[in-house]
Amino acid sequence: MTSAEWQIVGFTVWVAALSTVAILPFGLALAWALARGNWPGKSLVETFVTLPLVMPPVATGLILLTAFGKHGLGGLFDFRIVFTWRAVLLALSVMSLPLLVRSARTAFEEVNPRLEQIARTLGAGGWRVFFTITVPLAARGIVGGMLLAFARALGEFGATIMVAGNIQGKTQTISLAIFEDVQIGDDAHAYHLLGVSVVLAFIAVWSSEFFLRRKKTT
Amino acid sequence: MSLLLKNVSLPLAHFTLEADFAMQRRVTAVFGPSGAGKTSLLDLIAGLRTPRSAFIQLDNDVLTDTAKKFSVATHRRGIGYVPQDLALFPHLSLRQNLLYGRKSGGTNNSQFAFDHVIEVLEIQPLIARGVTELSGGEKQRVALARALLSSPRLLLLDEPLASLDAPLKAKIIPYLALVRDEFQIPMLCVTHDRYVALALADEIVVLMNGKVMQTGPVSEVFARPANAEVAKFVGVETLQPGTVTSVNEGLATVTVGNVTLTALAPPPASRDVFVCIRGEEVTLQRDAVTASSVRNHLSARILSLRPEGALVRVELDAGFPLFALVTRPACAELALREGENITALIKAPAIHLVPR
Predict the structure, then answer these.
(1) Looking at B173, B198, B233, which one is the last position of a domain?
(2) Is residue A218 situated within a structural domain?
(3) Do residues B248 and B169 both lie within one domain?
(4) Is the distance from CB of B144 to CB of B126 less than 8 angstroms?
(5) CATH code of B35's domain
(6) Number of neighbouring beta carbons within 10 Å of residue A218
(7) Which of these, A1, B29, B117, B267, has the minimum number of CB atoms within 10 Å of its CB?
(8) For residue A108, is it within any domain?
(9) pTM to 2 decimals?
(10) What is the pLDDT of residue A211?
(11) Helix B38-46 and helix A113-121: axis angle, to 10°?
(12) How many whole angstroms from its chain centre is CA A134?
């Protein structure tokens, strides 16, 4: 492993972790609203959130590129988004959000609403109930969902290359680097990174399995 | 303390819950069969459900007034709620459960001091244990203590004994009575168990299919059900105050008026009891009994005969008012007439003694 390879691995892990943390507040809020609420347009929102899971990732990437480019939302910011590390973060966040939301939603649904209601009768307001009852009881599903989202982010390719390009030392993640290495015939590099990505994915998925496994009902 | 419910209307799956009553006494039992809307009524008072219309007032505070689109949030109502499934928080320790509703900053009512509540409900020996390691009765006490420690103004109990088997029920009733007497806290207790209602309540609200059928003091509702539906559900035709004079080998001697009866012994330490006898448990016999396994033979005079479908309700004066339910053919065969004397037989196990 060369230092350039380590840089790629480090950047990938860092930006994937950051995207997982970034989507957490919104993802949990959304998961909770989907689990507990009954509001108009709920099924529509549900569908939109799941879209990145089933749409071609490059198509999602193209949407992001258009939306956050100079003539889109990107024009509103002082800093550039597309073709920077921020675009990588954006692509990973959008692509991994559905996994977090789906796991967290299931976990929230499994929390007995009676416990939340009784917590309220004991004088706890909405936030206190959420953080002391709902989240701890749904913790396994939330952590499992975060790990899945993180694993998805580690391997993201299509959306990232569309919106962030494949710029060495700047936006290049493991997947993008493997693609480039194979293109230019540098198979040794590709296999190094392949090994790393297998190990990382294995650890993430394996630990998420641990968290998502159903608790034994006592 | 007073709880006022006016114009309550809450659509449920099969009917609309409607209630209009004032609770004045300290302990009120909402009494009715399963599915009568009792839990929904408690949820409404606690602010956990939004009614179509309601005016709910606790003492001088309006809690819900749909006409003014006003509703106090659940966590500001100061109403303790012990639900049927108890809802202990499984991820918290027993102590954390107990302290969950504790207010920080010494605003707690000293009446609900931690040590006092723990002592009254005998929680101390349990405190080192996990919430999931408790028995049904222990969970019940912890849930009660947790609600009390939030210093509530009103305590709502949903079927406090439903999850317990018979021997445990007998153990929990005294705790509930203790809470009632020790903390002087008003309680609204939902139950379908007439013995809970009798043992705890001063006042009773009979709720059937979402409608309040009758309200009044316990003995009155049991003795004089407002209609046949209530009578059928309440089920006890004879309800008289009595005094246990002695207990011997599980059998109690109890005095009702000037009559002495033999019954199965009530829970320990209850001297003053309600004597409950269901009409169908009373046998009528023309001739004097020679030898019989039945413990209680009472000479009685027939006061009235009232046909009720296939049965006849016989009102007797046996030294106290006693009702018997007999079939029409039996009534004809015995040629029962008002004013005549007859012997009423009641087996000892058919006489239920409930502490009062």
Answers:
(1) B233
(2) no
(3) no
(4) no
(5) 3.40.50.300
(6) 7
(7) A1
(8) yes
(9) 0.80
(10) 83
(11) 50
(12) 21
Assess contact for B25 and B202: CB atoms under 8 A. yes
- Is A133 in contact with B90 (Cβ distance < 8 A)? no
| B266 and B200 share one domain | no
Q: Which of B48, B49, B88 best tests the A interface by mutation, with the highest count of A CBs <10 A?
A: B48
- A85 found inside a domain: yes
Task: Judge whether A114 is closer than 8 Å to chain B, CB to CB.
Answer: yes
Q: Which of B152, B117, B103, B128 is nearest to B3 (CA)?
A: B152
Using an 8 Å Cβ cutoff, are B322 and B298 in contact? Answer: yes
Q: Which of B43, B100, B132 sits opposite A119 (nearest CB)?
A: B100
CATH at residue A175: 1.10.3720.10
Give the domain extent around A139.
3-212
Asked if B91's CB is within 8 angstroms of A137's CB, the reply is yes
pLDDT of residue A217: 43
Same domain for B219 and B260 = no
> In chain A, what percentage of residues exceed pLDDT 90?
82
pLDDT at B308: 78
Partners of residue B89 in chain A, C-beta under 8 Å: 115, 119, 133
pLDDT at A30: 96
Tell me the chain A residues in contact with residue B81 when contact means C-beta distances shorter than 8 Å.
Answer: 117-118, 121
Task: Say yes or no to pLDDT of B107 above 70.
Answer: no
What are the pLDDT digits (tens) for A125-174?
Answer: 999 999 999 999 999 999 999 999 999 999 999 999 999 999 999 999 99
Q: Do B173 and B295 fall within a single domain?
A: no
Residue of A nearest to B47 (CA): A121
Taking residues A69-86, what's their average pLDDT?
84
Q: 3-class DSSP state for residue B21?
A: strand
Complex ipTM: 0.83
Do B192 and B299 have their domain in common? Answer: no
For position B230, what pLDDT does the model report?
A: 79
Neighboring chain B residues of A117 at a CB cutoff of 8 Å: 43, 46, 48, 74, 81, 83, 87
Nearest to A206 by CA among A161, A148, A162: A148
Describe the crossing of helices A139-155 and A174-184 by its angle, rounded to 10 degrees.
20
Q: How much is the pLDDT for A184?
A: 94
- Enter the tokens of residue B4: 């006022």
Which chain A residue's Cα is nearest to B97?
A119
Summarize the confidence of residues A71-86 as an average pLDDT. 84
Dist. CA B353–CA B84, nearest whole Å: 25
Whether residues B350 and B254 share a domain: the answer is: yes
Same domain for B160 and B268, yes or no, is: no
Question: What pLDDT does A187 receive?
Answer: 92
Residue where a domain stops, chosen among B193, B213, B233: B233
CA nearest neighbour of B124 among B106, B100, B141: B141
Decide if A38 touches B, using CB distance below 8 A: no
Contact B74 A120 (CB under 8 A): yes
Structural domain range at position B323:
239-355
Chain A CB contacts of B47 under 8 Å are 120
Whole-angstrom distance, CA of residue A100 vs CA of residue A120: 27
pLDDT of residue A218: 37
Q: Chain B window 92-111: which residues touch A at a Cβ cutoff of 8 Å?
A: 100-101, 103
In terms of domains, do B176 and B257 share one? no
Our count of domains for chain A comes to 1
Per-residue pLDDT reduced to its tens digit, B257-298 = 889 999 988 766 678 888 888 888 899 988 776 788 888 999
User: Which residue of A121, A217, A218 is the best one to mutate when testing the B interface, meaning the one whose CB has the most B CBs within 10 A?
Assistant: A121
Domain CATH code at residue B340: 2.40.50.100
Q: How many domains does chain B have?
A: 2
